[in-house]
Amino acid sequence: MQTERLRAQRRAWVRDYAKNEWRTMKENGQAWKVERFIALIGVAYPSRSNIFPARAAETVKPIIDAGRDAKLWDDDDSQHRHSTVYIQLPEPAPPNHYRLTVIIIPVPDKLPKYQITSRLAANIEKHWRQQSELPDWHDGYSVSFTVPDKQWITSNFTDSDLMARQKGARKASTWGRGTNLGIRERVKKQLTELAVRSWSRQAFRPYSRFVVIAGIAYPYGVDTADPDNAAETANTILQAGVTVGAWPDITSRHCGGVAFVRLPNLMNGGHHLVRLFVFPMPDGFQIAQSIAESSVDAWSEHDRRLR
Asked: Domain of 193?
């Protein structure tokens, strides 16, 4: 548990560090400006144990912000960052360190407009068709979770903001006093209870290995918020799936990767929607390779249509 001031200080340090790294790469010709892109995040812990890489979203947020500071993209909103995908790296980080590998994959915004959900689903289906046996529900399933404002957690909310939202306000007028320590954990507990009830009312199919696309729908009027701001909410819902038997755990032993993507806004306010698209993962399927190949295919189609 950390105070909101300590959390802000850590994020500021990561952002400054990442900004220098991005600028150095840009000066050396290793990074350049992109318009619409996928951020593929590889995560390594200082051990070979299986981890849940999407937990790194809190650290990745200031790294992507730093890319905007370095003028590598105009904004990190959903119009520019189409999706953020988290996978575990095969090799561990050095002792007492964590390693993040950030791969920026440009994708077209028209002719055709790249959509990771349909592309990834099609690639998984293609791999399954090459297998001798198809599992039950081999084409995957989706489950939806409606989350009220009071239980909605994003990386942009301080503890003071979360407390203010319990009282019906949108944001806190002040922060950093240390009087709301622990509110994040209490809201997560409420969210977990809500998610377990929602899981229990829906049909799902346990898979030994799976990939998740977490679609995030904001209330009416929210413009271009990026979807993995809501990673804390989505990750809590994924963890609640363990309780109801949707999967044994959400580490990379079973979960091959999590991709966050924006869904169309809801028609009213007061709540948000998380829709999980869950696909069984064929043997030999590599999510990073699939995304890279699908982006190449999309650009080839883009160039063909322009000719």
From this structure: 4-306
